[in-house]
Amino acid sequence: MYEQTAHTVHGNKSTGMPPAVAGGLSCILIVLLFVTTHSRNALYLDKLTLWGDTLRKSPQSQRSIYNYGYALFTLGKDDDAITALSTLEHKPPGKIRRDHLYLQLGTSYFRMGKYENAVLAWHKGLEYAPHDAIFLNNLAMAYLRMDKFSSAKEYIAQALIADPLLKEAASTKGEILLAQKEYGQAAVWFLRSIERDPEDMSGYWFAAQAYAKAKRYGDARRYAEMALKKDGDEQFRNNILKFVESIDGRAGTVSK
Fold first, then answer.
1. Which of 58-72, 147-161, 173-187, 195-209 is predicted least confidently?
2. Does residue 22 carry a pLDDT above 90?
3. Between the CA of residue 14 and those of 66, 95, 123, 224, 253, what are the distances in Å?
4. Structural domain spans, the chain
5. What is the DSSP letter of 54?
6. Under DSSP, is residue 113 helix (H, G, I), strand (E, B) or coil?
């Protein structure tokens, strides 16, 4: 058995504002596995030690290589994770599924900002898992980060066909529209992501920002307040509060 979690990539909420909204950079929304708690770190430090020791004893074991790379990834050591996982590309197919391998590699590249490498890895993964919604969604996000809007729209359309209920795909569609300044339509897609997962605060947060861009400040404030009612780290909550203050200021200016 080996470690595996499906990774869809998404914007880092700790920044408080998606790049598409702050600074004009393309924003991203896909489910990356970030280490956010001390217990999570401790767990994977133990696994890193375990699989590192196993790898030293069985250096040719594909399962040991993959799990060691996965533990590195989970601890945020993407460069080391890529080094470890890339060795599996040159080995004959074994017990490690190639689609899992390329999903993992692409996610590490993506987190490092190496979007072209991520695209290459995810395209290779698609060869082993055609029409997989997660690969298609991730490719859309990578192309969005590269400002290749035509490709981003092409792949998110395919992702939504492959899995119409994938909440990350709805969010990605919203991010693409937001980057292209179609704020009202972006908000509609963020609301669809909320329908798919009402407990995910990111949907409310992105909807609030889309409405703010559309100058619908009442709706922006309402969804920002709804985001505050969901679980989130202190920095993110502080950013939302500042956002609400800025919305109130803009709304006041408009009313005058």
1. 58-72
2. no
3. 29, 37, 29, 15, 29
4. 1-180, 186-256
5. H
6. coil
8 Å CB contact between 143 and 112? no
Report the pLDDT value the prediction gives residue 129, as an integer from 0 to 100.
95
CATH 1.25.40.10 assigned to domain 186-256? The reply is yes
Pick from 168, 164, 137: nearest CA to 153: 137
Q: Which long-range contacts (CB under 8 A, 24 or more apart) does 176-181 make?
A: 176/140, 176/144, 176/149, 176/152, 178/18, 178/20, 178/21, 178/27, 178/206, 178/209, 178/210, 178/213, 179/20, 179/26, 179/27, 179/144, 179/149, 180/149, 181/213
Tell me if 1-180 shares its fold with 186-256. yes
For residue 60, give the nearest of 80, 88, 29 by alpha carbon: 88
Q: Are 39 and 61 in contact (CB under 8 A)?
A: no
- How many residues are given for the chain? 256
Side-chain-side CA neighbours of 45 within 13 Å: the count stands at 6
Contact 203, 197 (CB under 8 A): yes
SS3 18: coil
User: Of 96, 103, 134, whose CA–CA distance to 120 is shortest?
Assistant: 103
Q: What are phi and psi of 60, to 5 degrees?
A: -95, 0
> For the domain bounded by 1-180, which CATH number is listed?
1.25.40.10
Lowest mean pLDDT among 12-16, 48-52, 165-169, 186-190: 12-16
Q: What is the pLDDT of residue 256?
A: 41
Mean pLDDT of the chain: 81
